[in-house]
Amino acid sequence: MRAYTRQLPTGITMIGEGCGRVIESKSSDFPVGTVIMGRYGWCTHTVLDTKSKDPMNVIRKAPADYPKDLPQSLLLGAVGMPGMTALLGLTKLCEPKEGETVFVNGAAGAVGSIVGQIAKIKGCRAVGSAGSDAKVAWLKELGFDAAFNYKTVSSLDAALKEAAPNGIDCYFDNVGADFSSTVLNHMNLFGRMAICGSISTYNDKEPAKGPYPFVTILFKQMTVTGFIVTRWLNEWPKGMDQMVQWIKEGKIKYREHVTEGFENMPKAFIGMLAGENTGKAVVKL
Per-residue pLDDT tens for 136-155? Predict the structure, then answer.
């Protein structure tokens, strides 16, 4: 959040995405009872402008045929923005091919856990790292071919060699900094890297300093792309349908870390940044 909020004035409502039901409306496009998702921040109720042209704050409807047996909270997780981040970031930027190796860090999170499962659907070897043995065990339950606890391995370099002995073709990065500098050394020729986040640097008071990656990128002829998933907003409806289908078919599994009560939102948020959640962290109001 700090990467975004440092650009905003103090005193505003804390940013964040919510899912709720319309209780009063003057818009025929959003009648009472409509389930919507939007970036309206930390609040129990909100008034939304349906005519707003802000591309970063679009009001989205839940799919009309969204299965009643799936929790609506998935519209903030596997079927929502995190799911679209995993699906579109991986398939459009990394373009994984059958038989290739896909590595994702932060693999037990809302995005990373989906990335690995999509990699398996695409016929790839899925490798992930996470911050606890329990999370690593869950990744293996999800079908990851290899996973390791980056906090306990003696050497990240050695762990990557063991987990990806044939190198890495696709790297979905959620961590950044020194971690990514090490991963780059294991990338194969013509490797593709999608930069989704840089959670290891968000609390830094000074810009991170480390080995310059440019020579490695040059001689491995890599493609490295940073992205914000709203660039493909027009493709979200199709992507959401795909995620629902995979979930119903049992190809995508999910976990949610649910905190009860609006008053506990700060605690839930801090816990998420400390890695206490497995899967998507949500707060139920």
Answer: 999 999 999 999 999 999 99
**pTM for this predicted structure:** 0.92
Which among 35, 26, 22, 101 has a CA at the least distance from the CA of 67? Answer: 35
The dihedral of CA 167, 171, 173, 177: what is its sign? Answer: positive
Is the separation of the CB atoms in 75 and 62 below 8 Å?
yes
Q: Which pairs with CB-CB distance under 8 Å and at least 24 residues apart come from 175-182?
A: 175/105, 175/106, 175/199, 175/200, 176/200, 176/201, 176/208, 177/201, 177/208, 177/210, 178/208, 178/210, 179/105, 179/150, 180/213, 181/210, 181/211, 181/213, 182/156, 182/157
Q: What is the mean pLDDT of residues 110-123?
A: 97
Residue 139 dihedral angles phi and psi, to the nearest 5°: -60, -40
pLDDT at residue number 52: 84
The first and second tokens of residue 95, run together, are 């373009």
Q: What is the pLDDT of residues 234-275, one digit of tens each?
A: 999 999 999 999 999 999 999 999 999 999 999 999 998 888
